[in-house]
Structure to design on (193 residues):
């Protein structure tokens, strides 16, 4: 989730100061991605630097609201019109972890998969429980976020099933001498004797 574009989308609704932006962001996403106030102000400073928002005079309470600029609206419209590429997303730590578990001596890959499955099933139950806690129309944005998380979690369970099946069928290739240079050295020592 782009915090930058999230804040621009919120400012498109109207002027807001930092704490209002944080509350609106968490309300829109069902607190799925908690946002600290430092992130809000750091992002606002960058948006101001880039000419996408402008600060307004402080109100009576000493809070400084921000408003979106025309350049900010254009940037936001471009973001909404552009699909999110999978290449733009963070690396998939789980697939990297399993790939490394397979190639690291002494790692019980089945246990790694089972530990992940247990955690994923717990997350799926929690997301499903949260989904049914409210059906008010104003909760639709965060219910859609929860739906996305449920679908991703279900896909992860299916992928873990696939990993377990693949592990059962996996027949590792015999180790070659180049994979173990110490074996080559021992063979050379024996040949010289």
């Amino acid at each position: 989730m782009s915090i930058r574009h999230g804040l621009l989308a919120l400012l498109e609704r109207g002027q807001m100061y930092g704490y209002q932006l944080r509350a609106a962001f968490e309300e829109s996403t069902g607190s799925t991605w908690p946002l600290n106030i430092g992130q809000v102000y750091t992002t606002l400073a960058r948006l101001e630097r880039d000419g996408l928002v402008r600060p307004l005079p402080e109100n009576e309470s000493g809070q400084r609201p921000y408003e979106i600029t025309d350049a900010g609206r254009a940037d936001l419209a471009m973001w909404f019109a552009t699909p999110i590429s999978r290449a733009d997303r963070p690396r998939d730590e789980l697939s990297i972890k399993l790939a490394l578990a397979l190639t690291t001596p002494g790692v019980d890959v089945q246990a790694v998969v089972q530990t992940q499955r247990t955690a994923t099933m717990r997350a799926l139950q929690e997301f499903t429980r949260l989904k049914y806690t409210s059906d008010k129309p104003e909760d639709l944005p965060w219910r859609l976020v929860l739906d996305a998380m449920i679908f991703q979690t279900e896909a992860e369970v299916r992928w873990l099933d696939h990993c377990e099946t693949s592990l059962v069928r996996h027949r590792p290739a015999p180790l070659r001498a180049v994979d173990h240079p110490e074996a080559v050295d021992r063979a050379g020592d024996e040949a010289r004797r």
User: Anything to note?
Assistant: The chain is about 65% helix and 5% strand. The first strand starts at residue 53 and ends at 55. Helices lie at 3-11, 18-28, 37-49, 70-81, 93-103, 109-131, 140-169, 181-192.
